[in-house]
Write a structure and sequence with these properties.
One of its GO terms (biological process) is nucleotide transport. Helices cover 57% and strands 2% of the residues. With 326 residues, it is mainly α.
Length: 326
């Protein structure tokens, strides 16, 4: 072993440091995105407790950076790092699965950059990762949007605040959240079955290491970018819908059907609230849940306007471009 090898930090230490830096940067950015897309802002009048009409009094946030300012103003740095613990644990678990269960050569970037095993192999890999990550994604989204202040170490109290008694007794019911799996699966299929083959067809040089910019046809690149931008018009609403459905809790009992919410007694009343005076975001009434993918899209358009489906669409576009060209 040379002196340079002995003085170099272990790969595990480098990976740990890189993961810590990544979490420090992306957890606040992701949390702001989730809150911005989850914020319920109906455009019409609402019924009050006596059956009369009243204007909506919840927070109105029109931009991603406006949500960033609101989170910091009401909850400070602690609010920006809501969801840190489940994100860290899920990242660690998925990394272990990729390292030991998947035959990959080095790290890959992007949500659906699977091993090069063909379209069907990539689709299978993506669905396996979806099944593994879905419960942790639900818990992460709920920990970000909950008005409660959750302990980083008291897992039991955190789960009591985030999950209904039914979900704690039967955790597999998270996979049956109305419309959520359909939204995520459709998102995967569009990327793996459409954008992936299209990129390899029009821009084969991007799949080869060491490809020079001159190897890429500018005409084909423009065609791909135009089609990709059109695809974002579908992907962005799916991400907004998936966010809304992930934070919608499930309950099944004699007095409620399988998609109704637990209205009373589903959270620990002793859990402290994060905001001193008001909540960062408004959440939809749990007594009237979305019934599925199409129902969620229709209600968002009817209640909040179709532009709600395109909140932070530019993040979807930048993320897709990063996955395609990095």
């Amino acid at each position: 072993m040379s002196d340079s090898d002995s003085s170099r930090p272990p790969d595990a230490l480098i990976l740990l440091l890189a993961s810590a830096i990544t979490l420090a940067v992306f957890v606040p950015l992701t949390g702001i995105l989730v809150r911005f897309r989850a914020n319920y802002n109906p455009k019409g009048l609402q019924l009050d407790s006596e059956g009369g009409t009243a204007p909506h009094t919840g927070p109105v946030v029109h931009s991603y950076f406006g949500m960033m300012s609101r989170v910091y103003k009401l909850e400070g740095w602690a609010g920006l790092y809501k969801g840190l613990m489940p994100t860290a644990l899920s990242t660690f678990a998925v990394s272990l699965v990729i390292m030991f269960a998947m035959d990959t050569q080095g790290p890959r970037h992007g949500k659906y950059r699977a091993p090069e095993t063909g379209v069907l192999g990539t689709l299978f890999y993506s669905f396996i990762m979806l099944i593994i990550s879905l419960p942790t994604s639900i818990i992460t989204y709920r920990s970000i949007t909950t008005p409660h202040k959750l302990s980083y170490l008291n897992v039991t109290a955190a789960l009591r605040a985030l999950l209904t008694p039914t979900e704690r007794r039967r955790p597999w019911i998270l996979y049956l959240t109305p419309g959520l799996m359909a939204a995520e699966a459709l998102h995967v299929c569009i990327i793996v079955l459409f954008l992936g083959p299209l990129r390899r067809l029009l821009l084969p040089g991007l799949s080869e290491r060491g490809a020079a910019p001159g190897d890429i046809s500018m005409i084909k690149l423009m065609i791909y970018l135009i089609i990709f931008c059109a695809t974002v018009m579908v992907l962005a609403p799916l991400e907004v819908i998936a966010t809304r459905l992930a934070i919608q809790r499930n309950h099944a009992s004699a007095e409620y059907n399988s998609v109704s919410q637990e209205i009373d007694g589903d959270a620990d009343n002793t859990v402290e609230y994060s905001g001193a005076e008001e909540d960062v975001i408004g959440l939809r009434n749990e007594g009237d849940p979305y019934l599925g993918l199409l129902d969620c899209a229709k209600r968002i358009i009817d209640e909040e306007g179709w532009m709600t489906l395109y909140r932070a669409w530019w993040i979807t576009m930048l993320g897709g471009l990063g996955s395609s060209f990095v």
